[in-house]
Amino acid sequence: MSDSDLEAFRVETRQWLEANCPPEMREPVRDEEDVYWGGRNASFKNDAQKAWFEACREKGYTVPEWPKEYGGAGLTPAQGKVLRQEMAATNARPPLSSFGIWMLGPALLHFGTEGQKQRFLNEIANGEIRWCQGYSEPGSGSDLVSMQTFGEDKGDHWVVNGQKIWTSYADEADWIFCLVRTDKDNKYQGITFMLFDMASDGVSTKPIKLISGNSPFCETFMDDVTVPKSYGEDIPGYVGEINRGWDVAKYLLGHEREMISATGGGDRATSLGAVTSRQGALDPVLRAEIAMFDVDALAYTAMSEKFMDELKSGKGHPAQPNMMKYAGTELNKRRNELVMAAGGSHALEWESEASNGGKTARGWLRTKANSIEGGTSEVMLNVISKRILDLPGA
Amino acid sequence: MPLYYDDDQAMLAETASQFMGEEGSIKNQLRHWRDRDCKDGFGHGLWKQFAEMGFTGMLVDEDDGGLGMGQVEAGIVLEEIGRNLTPSPFLSSSVLAATALKHGSNDVKGRWLPDLISGDKVYAMAIDEGPKHRPERIATKAEKSGNGFRLSGKKDFVVYGASSEMIVVAARTSGSDDDKDGITLFAVPQDASGMSHDSVRLVDSSMASHVTFDNVELDGDAVIGEVDGGRAILDAVLMAGRVGSAAEGVGVARGAMDMTVDYIKQRKQFGRLIGEFQALQHRAAHLYSEVEIARAVTVKAAQLVDGGSEKAELMTSVAKAKVAKAAGLAVREGVQMHGGIGMTDEYDIGLYMKRDRALQEFLGDQYYHAGRVAELSGY
Known about the structure:
The structure holds two protein chains of two kinds. By secondary structure, chain A is of the alpha+beta class. Chain A is built from eleven helices and eight strands. Chain A has a four-stranded mixed sheet. In chain A, strands 2-3-7-6 form a four-stranded antiparallel sheet, with no helix packed on it. In chain A, helix 6 packs parallel to helix 9. The two termini of chain A are 43 Å apart. Chain B has three domains: 115 residues, Orthogonal Bundle (Butyryl-Coa Dehydrogenase, subunit A, domain 1); 104 residues, Butyryl-CoA Dehydrogenase, subunit A, domain 2 (Beta Barrel), CATH 2.40.110.10; 145 residues, Butyryl-CoA Dehydrogenase, subunit A, domain 3 (Up-down Bundle). In chain B, the strands form three sheets. Chain B has a four-stranded mixed sheet with strand order 1-4-5-8, covered by helices on one side. In chain B, strands 2-3-7-6 form a four-stranded antiparallel sheet, with no helix packed on it. Chain B has a two-stranded antiparallel ribbon with strand order 9-10. In chain B, a hairpin with a 2-residue loop joins strand 9 and strand 10. In chain B, 55% of the residues are buried. At the A-B interface, helix 7, helix 8, helix 9 and helix 11 of A face strand 10, helix 8, helix 9 and helix 11 of B.
């Protein structure tokens, strides 16, 4: 696509956003209700959220770079970048957030059958089904491949027993993509990437209360759950091949790390110093620390841009998402420490209306998980050592 | 514009890498001239080769005989200069002075640019007036005198000043020392009467001058741009120089990091390669992350400067500060991970530490630029 075509697309996109993105959807996301996750039981917070979601769905902009036949807009990487830039410029909120978009979708685009793509990708793009991810287990955190949840082969289906943990929003999800051991003798080539309905008999969830007081994660229990091997013609109940789910999981972990690197930092482009100094003059040493943070955060925005550009053009190092995840999450934790310091005693409030129910303090605590979930910082550093720096014995 | 090199830029990077790795290597240039106590601090032969490669005039407009390239391209050359610690007047002549001359009249350009492009002459830039970079305050005075000016004052950290046939001097033609306006840039020839150099060797073996102007008489045609209109030119020079020195710093960081990572893959202690120890692996991986980020923001800043973006000034300061942090980490970790031999003159890692130190100070360190980021962001 020529530069002038791209410029025309930019103008068109700007006009479309101007016409279709309601003013309420250009406000910063304040709480969980401001995020639309879709799904069978979804409800809109207000008409603006509904209108914005529907406008994007019609245009294919819930998943702009997916092919049109799967609910996307079929944008090229360059167009996708223009759309992201223009959405950022208008402060437009994402119309739909989902683990289907961020994780299962990319896995299906890569490993899925045509039948799976037709069904599941369209459901995701249209916000009809909300997915959750079943990876970690109580005994398998960083060492994920040691997982034990087992699916016994019963011919046309499996019977699954076991427990997952840190399943994000499992209590609100419709379906789960789940790693299940199908061969106990083969560590890496004995796992199948299964897809099943959370309403299946034998599936139960229990929210986990975190130090933030919130419960975004659950324990998910599977007690004799029947998982069909097929949901219809060309729609297997698993992604990729049986016993080769680890390949899919590894591919997906890369996407999860990208997602965390892309979203983990909050508004990195907004100067932290500009925000915090509105509450009053900053102590000089704190101001200096915040300025140093802003240097790192603004530099990271350039890295994110470069990372995305390289990703879309296939130029990047395949292990680079680990570096992004490491740097992005550590930055976000530092940001929140500084936000607490700048906020002083007001930032300590846990329940008051003025603090919006302790948003600052709870948010600060939430960020401590950033460098644990989706691969700890220590694991990220191990991967960089081994795969990028090629250090011995790593 | 994607944030990676296009085909032409990738080709330039390859050419520059090969050239600097061979002709400009530490052994052939930095150590060679240092060990001979060379008073220039760089080799004029190499500077001629820079001209043959087209580097000397790369930022000069095509109409003026240059290549009309931008900061991204200059950054590519500077990154290789940094990686090989190649001593050269490229940054002071071909980036700083060339950017200043871009704003001169046709007479000024005609007088100075051809010899810069041909590699026959070297120019310097005089901005600082004390140990720390503080271009907001300029006290060096140029008073009207007949048809010209009389220059008096002192400048510091004039890199390769004593070897330069001309020095671009930022002086005050009106107002008080801290005024933004009232600055004029002058092209002061080497033989100007009343100008004296105290040329000193710096920690990185480069040479810099304390320059004293004692009633130096200048013709009116020494003025670059407009009288009292020098601040905007100076800002452009500073932006080009800062993004350029950030690019050189990226090269220093990458050179030190690569050398260190190679070393810990070879050095054995306790019967194992020390690179097997997680205590070193995690530090090396963290360093990699910092250097990658510093490199990305430097290319971004260069693109913004080339595009005339309103964000160019902010991102240039971000880049300069971030590179200082990352390169500082690279050289400190480099010396530490090399252990005892990292302290020896024989090993190159210490040379990276020295160059980084000098480069950090040049046109503002991380503290200066973090402060700029705060000011430009409104706090």
